[in-house]
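Re: duplicated header lines in exported structure tokens

Our pipeline writes sequence and tokens for each protein into one text file. With two proteins the header for the second block appears twice in some exports. Here is an export where it did not happen, for reference. First protein block:
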Amino acid sequence: MFSPLRQAAAAFFKHDVALRKGEHGVEIVLQERPTVPAKAAKKPSRAELSSRKEREELALMIDKVGSLKPKVMGLDALFYEARDPHQDSMLMACFAKNKNLIAARKLVLSGKDGDSVSEISGDYINTASQYAHVNFFQDSVSSIRTFEPFYQDHAHKLYPFFSTAIVKQYDVAAYEKLEKKGANKVIINYTRHTNQYLVVDYMDI
């Protein structure tokens, strides 16, 4: 349906009023506004990316890596809800079978000072032999990345961080050093760029 007023309004709001010098003096014209590029979407975390993979694919990947008899395996992925029953069942069986697998979970904090662990989340697939939290308790805009080998709640109960649990299974001596640091912050020293690490795709295993 032809609507002159609607088309005129749409054209107006896509333009700015500007002055332009012409043959007959200064004229008022509508000048098209430059297109503002859309903001790039926030890059998802590694745990979020991992959880988006099909759960059957994750189970096959873990089983394949497990067949190579590593000392320890870690899955940095959070599972909040049920999905496909077949895939959920397959991943639960995989978790239960691989006793050296450490799975991720999230501590939910509450209380007046926010230091009480009120519940655990992200562990819907609940058959792993061991879970460890992947929370980072620090200012998101900090230029120095740190982590706490253990989180200590108001009752002084210690919860091992994900990497702490992996280190414990891999190297007891290194774990004892982390254990001495307790809930004190440790600076993360990055020794290389991410593209310098070996990343193996499931199809390459």
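Second protein block, exported in the same file:
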Amino acid sequence: MEEQDPKERIAELEGRIRQLEKRLSIDPDTGLLNKFACLAWLQSRIDGARFPRRDAIRAITCVFVDLNNMGAMNASIGHFAVDNLLVQFARFLESQVHDEDVVGRIHGDEFVMMFPRTNEKDARVVIERIDDALRSATSVVKSDRTGEEVSVQLRAKYGAVTWHRRSVTTADEVFRAMSNAQAEAKQLRALNPDAAAIVIKRFKA
């Protein structure tokens, strides 16, 4: 058996490593970045801001997006139908952002959007635009229970945190603050289920 050229072998191994890294960073159900990849992306931007350059990112807004009533929907139309809804929602979020923005899935029906160069004021405009688009959209899936197509209008809560360059911190701390903002958005929705539940905070280290 002919031995493989060492350079070819190295190139092959490097290719396999890149494929493995990609698989480990992608949510298999939606094709979005997973939580760990999102944390890594954010941490790299936070670290990069410690060495100011003209093109350095001065602010990043991270938005926790949590879909409403998915437990009841799971019971109503079934697990596979809900999985289909989550995939459609992932595509919807991707359609609402720019190339430099990041969309990921944290867990279950929880997603994250990260907007570089976006402060609190601009973030509210963006989130309200996305929420308006979601309220106007209708998803169609086949019910596990009946086999018939059903139309679903998704709703969500938004908890956001804006990190500014002067705040020395970690991505984990920003995500924790984002989760706390999301908890406040959940309380807002409980008080007024029909209103847009949006909470935006300035990150404080």
